[in-house]
């Protein structure tokens, strides 16, 4: 027998574990530029990047972290 578990975020909302984030070409360009400046930004630096770059403002910090890890 298999059990089914659901993932929840910090607010208790269900998270789709198969969610795929598509970045616009402008977002990819901005992330690439930032990667060349700092390939391994800290959590604080990632938050700062989101505040400073309007193109990245609608991306969750966790998604940016994953982008840098996958880069």
TrEMBL record:
Q: GO CC annotations? A: nucleus
Q: Which residues form a coiled coil?
A: none
Alphabetical keyword list: Coiled coil, DNA-binding, Homeobox, Nucleus, Transcription, Transcription regulation
Q: Does the keyword DNA-binding apply?
A: yes
Domain Homeobox: where? 14-71
Please provide an example of a Pfam family that matches this protein in its UniProt record: Homeodomain
Origin: domain of life: Eukaryota
Which GO MF terms does the UniProt record name?
DNA binding; DNA-binding transcription factor activity
Entry's family note: Belongs to the HD-ZIP homeobox family. Class III subfamily.
Identification of the protein by name: Homeobox domain-containing protein
Write the lineage as a comma-separated list.
Answer: Eukaryota, Viridiplantae, Streptophyta, Embryophyta, Tracheophyta
């Amino acid at each position: 027998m298999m059990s089914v578990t659901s993932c929840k975020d910090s607010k208790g909302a269900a998270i789709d574990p198969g969610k795929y984030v598509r970045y616009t070409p402008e977002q990819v360009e901005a992330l690439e530029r930032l990667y060349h400046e700092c390939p391994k930004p800290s959590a604080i630096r990632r938050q700062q990047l989101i505040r400073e770059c309007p193109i990245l403002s609608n991306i969750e910090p966790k998604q940016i972290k994953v982008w840098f890890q996958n880069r």
